[in-house]
TrEMBL record:
Positions of the UniProt region annotated as Disordered: 15-45
GO biological process: post-chaperonin tubulin folding pathway; tubulin complex assembly
Organism phylogeny: Eukaryota, Viridiplantae, Streptophyta, Embryophyta, Tracheophyta
Pfam families linked to this entry: TBCC_N
Protein name: Tubulin-specific chaperone C N-terminal domain-containing protein
The keyword RNA-binding appears for this protein: no
The keyword Cytoplasm appears for this protein: yes
Compartments, as annotated in UniProt: Cytoplasm
Main location, first listed in the record: cytoplasm
Organism name: Linum tenue
Amino acid sequence: MEAFFQKKRQAMIDRLSNRNQSRTATADDSTRSADDDNPDSAVASKFSESKCSIDSLLDKSSSVDSSAIRSHFDGISSSIAALEQLVVESSYSLPSYELRSALKSVAELKQRLENQSAELLPKKKFSFRNKSATAAAKSSAAVRPKDPELPKLQPPVLVIRESPGFHNAKDATLTKNFRGLGIGEFTASDLDSCEVRLIGCINALFINRLRNCRDDRKGKKVRG
């Protein structure tokens, strides 16, 4: 008799278990059917999961070793790009307010990544490069050839030809008769307050540094 009741009890438990499994399967089918009928819900769910994953990675950035921080940020950047691509591909089906919200979230993730990259990535060192550039500039200046010096122009020098004449006299009356002498050139130089009398003809008369002198032929003072 007792065995009979145990058998009946086990049969009831099995029926309840089968009924519960059937209800669970029906609920899962309903959920999948609802997701198929509402693609926006699936996109929103996928977006939310991806965003949470990226936020979690960004929260862990400060604890990542410096040797792996660059690859860490590269992975986050790829995830953000994939999330943005999801939003772009779903832009025609998403309501406008959900689209704006999704784009804003992507922009905030990008900004967080940029801020953390600026803070945690190792800075480039420019000191050695600057020193090298300075040394190269000095070396270039040292080997630069100097411009050739142009020859200095000297003022023209007046050359007094050696010829017969009156030279270095002061307060004197100087007379010269050229008739029959055949002198072609004559010079009067360095005379001060002298009266010069020239008789006859010559081919050329050179005058240099005369002061207060008089030409007897013209009765005029001669300077030169």
